[in-house]
Amino acid sequence: MSVASPVLFDNHGRPLEYLRLAVTDRCNLRCFYCMPEEGIQYLPKQELLTYEEMERTVGILAGLGVRKVRLTGGEPFVRRDLVPFIGRLSQIPGIDDISLTTNGVLTAPHIPELARLGIRTVNLSLDTLDRARFARITRRDELPRVLDTFYALLSAGIKVKINAVVMDGQNIEDLVPLAELTRDLPVDVRFIEEMPFNGGSHGAIQIPWNHLRIREHLEQHLGLLTPIATRPGDTASHYTAAGHQGRVGIIAAYSRTFCGTCNRLRLTAEGGLKTCLYDQGVLDVRALLRTGAPDTDVAAALANAFRHRAANGFEAERQRPVHQLSFESMSTIGG
Predict the structure, then answer these.
(1) How many structural domains does the chain have?
(2) Packed helices 51-64 and 295-306: angle between N→C axes, nearest 10 degrees
Protein backbone atom coordinates (compact mmCIF):
# COMPACT_ATOMS: atom_id res chain seq x y z
CA MET A 1 0.00 0.00 0.00
CA SER A 2 1.38 3.44 -0.91
CA VAL A 3 1.77 6.14 1.66
CA ALA A 4 1.60 9.89 1.31
CA SER A 5 4.96 11.32 0.28
CA PRO A 6 6.27 14.83 0.91
CA VAL A 7 6.39 17.16 -2.05
CA LEU A 8 9.87 18.29 -3.08
CA PHE A 9 10.25 21.39 -5.22
CA ASP A 10 13.19 22.48 -7.34
CA ASN A 11 14.65 25.98 -7.34
CA HIS A 12 12.01 27.10 -9.85
CA GLY A 13 9.04 25.94 -7.81
CA ARG A 14 8.34 22.80 -9.83
CA PRO A 15 7.43 19.62 -7.93
CA LEU A 16 9.69 16.62 -8.55
CA GLU A 17 7.56 13.50 -8.47
CA TYR A 18 8.32 11.48 -11.60
CA LEU A 19 11.42 9.33 -12.17
CA ARG A 20 12.40 7.87 -15.53
CA LEU A 21 14.64 4.94 -14.61
CA ALA A 22 16.84 3.38 -17.31
CA VAL A 23 17.40 -0.26 -16.40
CA THR A 24 19.86 -0.85 -19.25
CA ASP A 25 21.69 0.97 -22.02
CA ARG A 26 21.30 -2.00 -24.36
CA CYS A 27 18.76 -2.25 -27.14
CA ASN A 28 17.77 -4.89 -29.68
CA LEU A 29 16.92 -2.29 -32.36
CA ARG A 30 19.22 0.20 -34.09
CA CYS A 31 16.93 3.16 -34.82
CA PHE A 32 19.00 5.63 -36.78
CA TYR A 33 17.74 8.63 -34.79
CA CYS A 34 18.90 6.98 -31.56
CA MET A 35 22.26 5.41 -32.37
CA PRO A 36 24.67 4.66 -35.22
CA GLU A 37 24.13 1.52 -37.31
CA GLU A 38 27.00 -0.27 -35.58
CA GLY A 39 25.42 0.52 -32.23
CA ILE A 40 27.11 2.24 -29.31
CA GLN A 41 29.80 1.05 -26.93
CA TYR A 42 27.77 -0.50 -24.15
CA LEU A 43 28.85 -0.16 -20.56
CA PRO A 44 30.51 -3.14 -18.89
CA LYS A 45 27.99 -4.98 -16.74
CA GLN A 46 29.70 -3.96 -13.51
CA GLU A 47 29.21 -0.29 -14.38
CA LEU A 48 25.44 -0.65 -14.59
CA LEU A 49 23.38 -0.17 -11.47
CA THR A 50 22.26 -3.45 -9.97
CA TYR A 51 18.58 -3.99 -9.35
CA GLU A 52 19.30 -3.70 -5.64
CA GLU A 53 20.96 -0.32 -6.15
CA MET A 54 18.01 0.85 -8.22
CA GLU A 55 15.55 -0.27 -5.55
CA ARG A 56 17.50 1.56 -2.89
CA THR A 57 17.62 4.75 -4.96
CA VAL A 58 13.91 4.60 -5.76
CA GLY A 59 13.18 4.15 -2.06
CA ILE A 60 15.22 7.22 -1.21
CA LEU A 61 13.53 9.25 -3.94
CA ALA A 62 10.12 8.07 -2.78
CA GLY A 63 10.97 9.49 0.63
CA LEU A 64 11.69 12.81 -1.10
CA GLY A 65 8.37 12.90 -2.95
CA VAL A 66 8.75 10.82 -6.12
CA ARG A 67 5.58 8.80 -6.63
CA LYS A 68 5.77 7.69 -10.27
CA VAL A 69 8.43 5.55 -11.92
CA ARG A 70 8.71 4.83 -15.63
CA LEU A 71 11.13 2.08 -16.62
CA THR A 72 13.06 2.79 -19.79
CA GLY A 73 16.28 1.71 -21.49
CA GLY A 74 17.69 1.05 -23.97
CA GLU A 75 15.04 -1.59 -24.21
CA PRO A 76 13.97 -2.64 -20.70
CA PHE A 77 13.12 -6.22 -21.64
CA VAL A 78 16.65 -6.85 -22.86
CA ARG A 79 17.65 -7.01 -19.18
CA ARG A 80 16.93 -10.30 -17.48
CA ASP A 81 14.54 -10.60 -14.54
CA LEU A 82 12.85 -7.28 -15.26
CA VAL A 83 9.36 -8.41 -14.22
CA PRO A 84 10.38 -9.58 -10.71
CA PHE A 85 12.16 -6.26 -10.31
CA ILE A 86 8.93 -4.44 -11.19
CA GLY A 87 7.16 -6.46 -8.53
CA ARG A 88 9.66 -5.32 -5.90
CA LEU A 89 9.40 -1.70 -6.98
CA SER A 90 5.64 -1.86 -6.57
CA GLN A 91 6.14 -2.63 -2.87
CA ILE A 92 8.14 0.53 -2.14
CA PRO A 93 6.07 2.86 0.08
CA GLY A 94 5.14 6.04 -1.73
CA ILE A 95 5.40 4.63 -5.27
CA ASP A 96 1.87 4.43 -6.61
CA ASP A 97 2.41 4.43 -10.40
CA ILE A 98 4.80 2.24 -12.36
CA SER A 99 4.82 2.28 -16.14
CA LEU A 100 7.07 1.23 -19.02
CA THR A 101 8.46 2.43 -22.31
CA THR A 102 9.30 -0.40 -24.71
CA ASN A 103 9.85 -1.06 -28.39
CA GLY A 104 7.55 -4.08 -28.09
CA VAL A 105 9.79 -6.69 -29.67
CA LEU A 106 10.27 -8.79 -26.51
CA THR A 107 7.29 -7.58 -24.49
CA ALA A 108 4.34 -9.80 -25.43
CA PRO A 109 5.15 -12.87 -23.29
CA HIS A 110 5.29 -10.69 -20.17
CA ILE A 111 1.97 -8.88 -20.63
CA PRO A 112 -0.19 -11.12 -18.37
CA GLU A 113 2.23 -10.62 -15.49
CA LEU A 114 2.46 -6.87 -16.14
CA ALA A 115 -1.31 -6.68 -15.90
CA ARG A 116 -1.28 -8.70 -12.68
CA LEU A 117 1.27 -6.31 -11.18
CA GLY A 118 -0.98 -3.37 -11.94
CA ILE A 119 1.01 -1.72 -14.71
CA ARG A 120 -1.31 1.06 -15.85
CA THR A 121 0.36 2.38 -18.98
CA VAL A 122 2.85 1.22 -21.57
CA ASN A 123 4.44 3.63 -24.00
CA LEU A 124 5.13 1.77 -27.24
CA SER A 125 7.76 3.21 -29.57
CA LEU A 126 6.41 2.86 -33.10
CA ASP A 127 7.36 5.24 -35.89
CA THR A 128 5.57 3.56 -38.81
CA LEU A 129 3.00 0.91 -39.66
CA ASP A 130 4.81 0.06 -42.89
CA ARG A 131 7.04 -3.00 -42.57
CA ALA A 132 9.68 -1.87 -45.05
CA ARG A 133 9.99 1.59 -43.49
CA PHE A 134 10.10 0.03 -40.02
CA ALA A 135 13.05 -2.13 -41.12
CA ARG A 136 14.77 0.90 -42.63
CA ILE A 137 14.29 3.10 -39.56
CA THR A 138 15.12 0.46 -36.93
CA ARG A 139 17.51 -1.61 -39.07
CA ARG A 140 15.57 -4.68 -37.92
CA ASP A 141 12.53 -6.45 -39.44
CA GLU A 142 10.42 -6.71 -36.28
CA LEU A 143 7.17 -4.88 -37.02
CA PRO A 144 4.92 -7.97 -36.75
CA ARG A 145 6.14 -8.69 -33.21
CA VAL A 146 5.62 -5.05 -32.21
CA LEU A 147 2.05 -5.09 -33.51
CA ASP A 148 1.39 -8.36 -31.67
CA THR A 149 2.47 -6.59 -28.48
CA PHE A 150 0.26 -3.60 -29.27
CA TYR A 151 -2.92 -5.65 -29.59
CA ALA A 152 -2.02 -7.90 -26.65
CA LEU A 153 -1.64 -4.85 -24.41
CA LEU A 154 -5.05 -3.58 -25.47
CA SER A 155 -6.60 -6.99 -24.85
CA ALA A 156 -5.07 -7.04 -21.36
CA GLY A 157 -6.67 -3.69 -20.52
CA ILE A 158 -3.35 -1.83 -20.30
CA LYS A 159 -3.47 1.71 -21.64
CA VAL A 160 -1.22 2.15 -24.67
CA LYS A 161 0.50 5.34 -25.73
CA ILE A 162 2.26 5.10 -29.08
CA ASN A 163 5.33 7.31 -29.37
CA ALA A 164 6.34 8.19 -32.94
CA VAL A 165 9.35 10.37 -33.74
CA VAL A 166 8.59 12.64 -36.69
CA MET A 167 11.47 12.55 -39.20
CA ASP A 168 11.60 14.60 -42.37
CA GLY A 169 11.96 12.40 -45.42
CA GLN A 170 11.60 9.20 -43.42
CA ASN A 171 8.11 8.67 -42.02
CA ILE A 172 5.97 11.71 -42.84
CA GLU A 173 3.61 9.49 -44.84
CA ASP A 174 3.05 7.50 -41.64
CA LEU A 175 1.69 10.33 -39.50
CA VAL A 176 -1.89 10.06 -40.72
CA PRO A 177 -2.09 6.22 -40.67
CA LEU A 178 -0.75 6.24 -37.11
CA ALA A 179 -3.18 8.97 -36.07
CA GLU A 180 -6.02 6.99 -37.64
CA LEU A 181 -5.46 4.26 -35.04
CA THR A 182 -7.25 6.58 -32.62
CA ARG A 183 -10.44 6.42 -34.67
CA ASP A 184 -11.48 2.94 -33.55
CA LEU A 185 -9.11 2.21 -30.67
CA PRO A 186 -8.82 3.84 -27.22
CA VAL A 187 -5.15 4.72 -27.65
CA ASP A 188 -3.03 7.83 -27.50
CA VAL A 189 -0.80 8.38 -30.55
CA ARG A 190 1.86 10.94 -29.75
CA PHE A 191 4.12 12.56 -32.32
CA ILE A 192 7.52 13.69 -31.05
CA GLU A 193 9.78 16.34 -32.53
CA GLU A 194 13.09 14.79 -33.53
CA MET A 195 15.95 15.45 -31.11
CA PRO A 196 19.76 15.26 -31.53
CA PHE A 197 20.27 12.29 -29.20
CA ASN A 198 21.61 9.79 -31.72
CA GLY A 199 25.12 9.25 -30.39
CA GLY A 200 26.50 11.27 -33.30
CA SER A 201 28.74 14.29 -33.49
CA HIS A 202 26.30 17.09 -34.23
CA GLY A 203 24.87 19.52 -31.75
CA ALA A 204 22.05 21.89 -32.66
CA ILE A 205 19.87 20.82 -35.56
CA GLN A 206 17.12 22.38 -37.57
CA ILE A 207 13.85 20.47 -37.54
CA PRO A 208 11.52 21.18 -40.47
CA TRP A 209 8.72 19.30 -38.66
CA ASN A 210 8.16 21.17 -35.41
CA HIS A 211 5.04 20.84 -33.27
CA LEU A 212 3.18 23.56 -35.19
CA ARG A 213 3.74 21.94 -38.56
CA ILE A 214 2.86 18.48 -37.22
CA ARG A 215 -0.50 19.77 -36.00
CA GLU A 216 -1.18 21.58 -39.25
CA HIS A 217 -0.43 18.43 -41.24
CA LEU A 218 -2.71 16.28 -39.08
CA GLU A 219 -5.58 18.77 -39.30
CA GLN A 220 -5.35 18.76 -43.09
CA HIS A 221 -6.26 15.07 -43.01
CA LEU A 222 -8.23 14.55 -39.77
CA GLY A 223 -10.08 17.83 -39.60
CA LEU A 224 -9.97 20.27 -36.72
CA LEU A 225 -8.15 18.97 -33.64
CA THR A 226 -9.76 20.06 -30.38
CA PRO A 227 -7.26 20.74 -27.58
CA ILE A 228 -7.66 18.90 -24.28
CA ALA A 229 -6.67 20.69 -21.09
CA THR A 230 -3.21 19.62 -19.95
CA ARG A 231 -2.06 18.91 -16.42
CA PRO A 232 1.11 20.38 -14.91
CA GLY A 233 4.00 18.15 -15.91
CA ASP A 234 2.46 16.94 -19.17
CA THR A 235 4.92 16.91 -22.05
CA ALA A 236 2.28 16.28 -24.73
CA SER A 237 -0.38 18.62 -25.99
CA HIS A 238 -3.38 16.34 -26.50
CA TYR A 239 -6.20 16.69 -28.99
CA THR A 240 -9.35 14.91 -30.01
CA ALA A 241 -10.60 14.50 -33.56
CA ALA A 242 -14.30 14.22 -34.32
CA GLY A 243 -15.45 10.62 -34.23
CA HIS A 244 -12.24 9.24 -32.74
CA GLN A 245 -12.13 7.09 -29.59
CA GLY A 246 -8.51 7.85 -28.77
CA ARG A 247 -6.40 10.98 -28.63
CA VAL A 248 -3.63 12.52 -30.70
CA GLY A 249 -0.69 14.09 -28.89
CA ILE A 250 2.22 16.26 -29.97
CA ILE A 251 5.40 16.50 -27.89
CA ALA A 252 7.54 19.58 -28.55
CA ALA A 253 10.67 17.78 -27.37
CA TYR A 254 13.10 20.00 -29.29
CA SER A 255 11.12 23.24 -29.12
CA ARG A 256 10.85 22.61 -25.35
CA THR A 257 7.57 24.41 -24.75
CA PHE A 258 6.69 22.39 -21.61
CA CYS A 259 9.76 23.00 -19.43
CA GLY A 260 7.93 25.40 -17.13
CA THR A 261 6.02 22.59 -15.40
CA CYS A 262 8.48 19.70 -15.86
CA ASN A 263 8.32 17.29 -12.92
CA ARG A 264 10.73 14.66 -14.29
CA LEU A 265 14.05 13.29 -13.19
CA ARG A 266 16.17 10.75 -15.04
CA LEU A 267 18.50 8.10 -13.69
CA THR A 268 20.72 6.54 -16.33
CA ALA A 269 21.62 2.87 -16.34
CA GLU A 270 25.05 3.69 -14.92
CA GLY A 271 23.57 5.76 -12.10
CA GLY A 272 23.87 9.29 -13.43
CA LEU A 273 21.19 11.72 -12.30
CA LYS A 274 19.83 14.07 -14.96
CA THR A 275 17.44 16.80 -13.88
CA CYS A 276 16.90 17.73 -17.54
CA LEU A 277 17.05 15.66 -20.69
CA TYR A 278 19.50 18.18 -22.15
CA ASP A 279 21.97 18.39 -19.25
CA GLN A 280 25.19 16.38 -19.09
CA GLY A 281 24.36 14.71 -15.79
CA VAL A 282 24.47 16.47 -12.44
CA LEU A 283 25.19 13.75 -9.87
CA ASP A 284 26.94 10.35 -9.83
CA VAL A 285 24.50 8.36 -7.71
CA ARG A 286 26.36 5.10 -8.34
CA ALA A 287 29.50 6.49 -6.73
CA LEU A 288 27.55 7.51 -3.64
CA LEU A 289 25.98 4.08 -3.32
CA ARG A 290 29.21 2.16 -3.85
CA THR A 291 31.33 4.22 -1.48
CA GLY A 292 29.05 3.39 1.40
CA ALA A 293 27.12 6.64 1.77
CA PRO A 294 24.13 6.21 4.08
CA ASP A 295 20.65 6.93 2.77
CA THR A 296 20.60 10.30 4.53
CA ASP A 297 23.72 11.44 2.63
CA VAL A 298 22.36 10.18 -0.68
CA ALA A 299 19.08 12.00 -0.04
CA ALA A 300 20.96 15.20 0.84
CA ALA A 301 23.03 15.01 -2.36
CA LEU A 302 19.91 14.45 -4.44
CA ALA A 303 18.08 17.35 -2.79
CA ASN A 304 21.08 19.61 -3.42
CA ALA A 305 21.07 18.70 -7.12
CA PHE A 306 17.37 19.52 -7.31
CA ARG A 307 18.08 22.99 -5.89
CA HIS A 308 20.38 23.78 -8.83
CA ARG A 309 18.16 22.65 -11.68
CA ALA A 310 18.21 24.46 -15.03
CA ALA A 311 15.14 26.57 -15.74
CA ASN A 312 14.60 24.83 -19.08
CA GLY A 313 16.23 22.65 -21.70
CA PHE A 314 17.91 25.59 -23.41
CA GLU A 315 19.68 26.65 -20.23
CA ALA A 316 20.69 23.05 -19.53
CA GLU A 317 22.11 22.78 -23.05
CA ARG A 318 24.09 26.02 -22.64
CA GLN A 319 25.58 24.69 -19.41
CA ARG A 320 27.04 21.61 -21.08
CA PRO A 321 30.86 21.70 -21.19
CA VAL A 322 32.36 22.89 -24.47
CA HIS A 323 33.77 19.42 -25.12
CA GLN A 324 30.22 18.01 -24.97
CA LEU A 325 28.89 19.72 -28.07
CA SER A 326 27.70 16.34 -29.31
CA PHE A 327 24.84 14.50 -27.69
CA GLU A 328 24.57 11.02 -26.20
CA SER A 329 22.53 8.22 -27.67
CA MET A 330 19.00 8.24 -26.27
CA SER A 331 19.70 4.62 -25.38
CA THR A 332 22.15 5.76 -22.69
CA ILE A 333 19.88 8.50 -21.33
CA GLY A 334 16.69 6.56 -20.77
CA GLY A 335 14.23 8.53 -22.89
Answers:
(1) 1
(2) 60
